[in-house]
Design a protein that fits this description.
Number of domains: 2
Strand content: 35-45%
Helix content: 10-25%
Order of helices and strands: HEEEHEEEEEEHEEEEEH
Mean pLDDT: 80
Shape: elongated
CATH architecture of the largest domain: Beta Barrel
CATH class of the largest domain: Mainly Beta
CATH topology of the largest domain: Thrombin, subunit H
Largest sheet: 6 strands, antiparallel, barrel
Radius of gyration: 20 Å
Low-confidence stretches: 1-14, 211-215
Strand order of the largest sheet: 1-2-3-6-5-4
CATH superfamily of the largest domain: predicted glycosyltransferase like domains
Amino acid sequence: MGKGLSYAQRMPQNSGYPFVKQGVRVLLEGAAVGGAQLTAVIDAAASDGKLDLAVIDPAKAALLKPGMTITLEYFREGIVYKLRAPVAEPLGPASGPKAYPRVRLGVPLEVKKIQRRRFPRALVGLDVRFDRVEIPEDFDAVSKKAKKQMMTWAEALATKGATAVTETVSGSGLRMRTTLEVAKGEMVFLRLELPDAGINLLGEVVWQGASTPRESPGVSIGVEFKHLVDEGRQAILQFVAGQKYLL
């Protein structure tokens, strides 16, 4: 494929195309697949616009049939893009220890901006422990009273609460998979285990839906951070900036 050169080398820098090794969300079109979603990584890119995808979930790679049209969602330079392209052909597994299955896409039908996102998202699995909480209306995250309450919630998590694993993390929120069903609008206290240290967070559940991949137990929950102090956001942003796969 184009001597292995990426779009970053052969396409205009403002083209809006994804980079090689970038994580993307794949949306499948058509009633036969029921609006399924999967996660992939750009494995290679050609100067004519064709892309090779390494599919992270091998069980779902079989859903990508030649001739069907799929949509890629990804993040670049503060903007979320959607790229629609036909599936051209299956390929052999990617090189490396994980050897994910691959498919080749044809020339994209369209590439468009869909929104400007304040923070990039990292495609990463981190351990989370969380529980529902009620946050007072006058809650001030930097006050002594609030800090004491945060410590109380943190201590309670040692003996109760649910576990989860993140699917994406950003400076404004996260998506996590858990077996505990939490309703939209509920407030939660979370302990997010970053590699260097854990961080305590408050958030609001803004959506929940089928887990991805669907074969995994539980549901996916979207949490928007609330009352996040500067130190906490900076720790998350530094972590996200160091990740390989961004959406």
